[in-house]
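2.7 Reproducibility. Because tokenized structures are sensitive to small changes in the input, we list the exact sequence used for MOT3 protein, including any N-terminal residues retained from the expression construct. No trimming or masking was applied before prediction.
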Amino acid sequence: MGRPDPEEGRLPPPVKPPDGGWGWIVLLGCFVITGFSYAFPKAVSVYFKELMKDFHVGYSDTAWISSIMLAMLYGTGPVCSIMVNQFGCRPVMLIGGLLASSGMILASFTTNIIELYLTAGVLTGLGMALNFQPSLIMLGTYFDKRRPLANGLAAAGSPVFLSSLSPLGQVLLEKFGWRGGFLIMGGLLLNCCTCGAVMRPLDMGMKRKMEKAQDKYEAKEMLPIGGKSEEGISTTDGTKKAKKAKKKPKKGKKLLDFSIFSNRGFIIYTISKFILVLGLFVPPILLVNYAKDTGVPDTEAAFLLSIIGFIDIFARPACGMVAGLKWVRPHVAYLFSFAMLFNGLTDICSARASNYTGLVIFCVFFGISYGMVGALQFEVLMAIVGSQKFSSAIGLVLLIEAFAVLIGPPSAGRLVDALKNYEVIFYLAGSEVVLSALFLAMATYCCLNRGKKKECPPEKNPSVGGGSDTEEAESDVQEAEEHSSDNHQPAHSTDNAVVAASEEANHVAEEQSGEGGGCPEGDGEVLARDSCNTDQTVERDRF
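Resulting structure tokens (single pass, no recycling of outputs):
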């Protein structure tokens, strides 16, 4: 059976991730967005001393600016998911870039700290959130086989921008003051709009082909040949009705898909990530003060964070390359567990570091493990839920992480004030990270792998969850059949569309069965099913 030809009026095949091409431009945009989203709230801290002098407030009052930014970045995840599912990634990112920029520009004209909270905190934080989440979604649609490497390279934007935005902010503060610095920073955030503009939908080319094929088919059918003139007219009417039906939104479309909570792999990932965030950010936040209390000079203590950032820049892409290897990618969840275990043990082993050399060694190993966690966290989530449900999954995960962010670091700070002992805090933070690693590894092995073997017999041609080619082609068949059943006089063009779509589904199924049971080479994380119903999302073979 040959592949349908668009020139003959048949449906073109579903679009596959190109793993390159324009995807590299999308990756560059995601690199910039990730850098701004994670580094900007930290880079703003260079302005805090001037803000304290002008507004006559304390350090804790100014620190709320960064906290509000991070809270908006994490807490507005479901809102971003709804907007992406409704309007698409590109429009949402353009709006987000304008909000982020306008927030910093308006902040340069504020007269009190409350106005700063609303402008630099809420507006800018919301704008960055509307950019961060859609950029990751677009990255997942453009990359499949090279997705671990793409995620690692995009995640490297965070340490790169952190090491550049902080010195830049200091220079702007010295030359233009904090108001001028905020104004220029707002102009820099307009680059988020540029990054949003390059996020071209992957199926744009397919839509153009379908329109050309349909127009050509209409022209052929409208020619009256003998007694078939009435049939040609009915065909044209049926085609017009089909166009109107396509413009209407699908009945089953959900703005936020809560069905992912029925996926045990997603539940395990979410619980593990919540425990991880409780302790992951505590050591870098307390590191400088910890070093100063051990007698390290201020300049050398601040340099410790630069060491972590420098190591982090190279650790993330390197980990992405390792995760993309054929013999590693099926077990990427265990690699993520190892990264978390490595990070937690680093915290515990460094708790008694009493000199500068010991702290430098800690920063090297912490930078490596922290980079591994940053490179793998979204790759594992993409592999668990698939590209079709990733927009809803990441929004819900970020919302849950927001609670952990608001619990972990503030609680650690209060314990330091009460106990006057950093050693206990490092032990506690490391234990939380180790617990999350052990939970993910054990739950993945016991609940997913063993449960799948008991519940589900092996299938010859399983469909991959998360929007496979066969699944999309079969959905086209169902839509065409529903449309034909609604019309009392079904049009000849609709019947042709049904036949062409069914042929495409069979052709893609034959190709996938020839490649090894429907699973593309290099597929990452796999899921365990709750049931063997083929109507539900079908899990992948193994971790």
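The mean pLDDT is 76.
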